[in-house]
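Note to self: keep these together.
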Amino acid sequence: MHIEIDEISKLFGATAALHPVSLSLPSGALVALLGPSGSGKTTLPRILGGLEFPTSGRVLFDGQDATGLTVQDRRAGFVFQSYALFPHMTVMENVSYGLKFSGFDKAETKEKALAGLGLVGLTGYGGRLPSELSGGQQQRVAVARALVLEPQVLLFDEPLSNLDAKLRRQVREEIREI
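Structure:
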């Protein structure tokens, strides 16, 4: 999906969380936002995913204005910095969670969740709890949960910040492959 960011800005009260920014992101691009704390690195992906609405500007997906679309209508997957896994649910239940609300029957949900776990290299981990996984494995569960919904764009908020240097390199390569 081609994404156009047209003069997007975001204010929280009187505080500018994101100064006007414009970008053109071609389909299939892997883009990283770099900058100091408070520069909008989290706010911009949240706007792209529909978790926040801009104060001004527009977001276009394949030329269509998506600025006012809800999260559900954007077809965007989001992997949070904290991974946002449900600690009381198994890996399989975490990956299946969004599918349950997307109209898939039980068999389809299981099939898609198993495929998602396979895609991120976690086949056989479905019965474990998040607390039984390493940080890198937890992150892959969060990625699988986003991918099974077949998003057109996958957004990450500091996906490697909770990982040690060696694991950070490994997971960065895995994200590129996916």
